[in-house]
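Journal club side-thread
Mid-discussion, someone asked how the predicted structure for our own chain would compare to the paper's figures. Pasting it here so we can look after the session.
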Amino acid sequence: MCFKKFSFAAQNCYQLNIGKFYAKHFMAQKLTKRSTDYSKWYNEIVVNADLAENSAVRGCMIIKPYGYAIWENMQAQLDKMFKATGHQNAYFPLFVPKSLFEAEEKNAEGFAKECAVVTHYRLKNDPENKGKLMVDPEAKLEEELVVRPTSEAIIWNTYRNWIQSYRDLPILINQWANVVRWEMRTRLFLRTAEFLWQEGHTAHATQSEALEEAQSINRLYADFVENFMAIPVIQGVKSESERFAGALETYCIEALMQDGKALQAGTSHFLGQNFAKAFDVKFATAEGGLDHVWATSWGVSTRLIGALIMTHSDDNGLVLPPNLAPIQVVIVPIYKGEEQQAEVAAVAKTLQKQLEDVNVRVKFDNRDKFKPGFKFNEYELKGVPLRVAIGPKDIENKTFEIARRDTLTKAVIDDQNAITYIQDQLEQMQSDLFEKAKNFREAHITEVDDFESFKETLKTKGGFISAHWDGTAATEVAIKNSTKATIRCIPTDGALEAGICVYSGKPSQQRVLFAKAY
């Protein structure tokens, strides 16, 4: 069989036809409007922007290259920040012996319902069902293994061997890993049975050192989320019922999504000596005594990608802040014929090199099977911050058309000023996204002083409700059962203010933030 090489004209015809097909198909995939169905809109962005998809395992997801590139950028920045503060990376096993998992009772009780457990280590052919496999009953493990929902147990059992003296402290360890929490109701990125995260686990000689560690990591998380993700957060502590299982205090950062629901973006836990006592981790003090070690743990996960989507995106698709966008600038060529294609490509490649030289992440999309209109739609859906269009007229006029994803505005810029303009626009877009999200959050923090106003605000406006709480778990549960709103945080920068609990009428010393949450 013989194949003839297409002429350029034939290729151009093929390009036109397939481009029309994909453009038609693409335009048919218009997103559901946020105002119509926020949940559906979110799911459509995740899938259509090529971030992730459901897997063959219920509740688990496949993170696609574009989605994983966003996670890699998050990892790189956080890893840099962790190492700058003296932390080192290590790796611990995925499997935790059940006896170790049970050692710290509150932690074990808190995660027990979400645990996946390995009981056997081998399969064999099923004699009653040819071609099928069955669990080998003779391959039962002597001790069942918990697939880690979190790593405190395996890590503190290890620290017992690492720590003998105050000279061995502090230990500042971070782990990049996956964990499994068998969620019944799942949603891509926001809540999955398996997810990626980082978890820090530190050991200290004094209570004050451990407290400062937990607080400083919470500030680090706030710095990262605000300055790199352009998401404003409120720093605070959790109520006792919302604390991490086994913690004495949980510090948190809370963000507000466009639908008025809150999302916990990161947590940092002061564990006291609970895990050190559970695993008998003691050290010889500088004064010659013997004491249990003080501990912290902290983490953020791939749910941050969900926060990114829900904070910035619009009815046209994903909107990415430049600091985290895998592609900050895309160059789309516009041409007719082979001669124009070569001319435009030469200019585009020069611009690409100039942008790469100033550390801008840039892509020149020179695919010849898709029309410019299709590419414009594709990169708009994927949230690429800036798009540069280059055609013969642009070359003739020595200009570029540059479009911003967030505002959907265009500008024609002289080619001599293009690099500076692009750098300025990326910086401006990062700032504008943060300010837009911050203004939305501020407009959706409402002070209320009675329970009827509480319920009405939650129903009609949503967002954070700033209200007095008497500090009791009973009142917290009653409000949750009545409204599905929980205490998202007790703000650390909130001033003490005497008042009356919005539900019980009992005395209160400070307002806390309630919201419905993911």
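Post-session note: Residues 1-28 have pLDDT under 50 and may be disordered.
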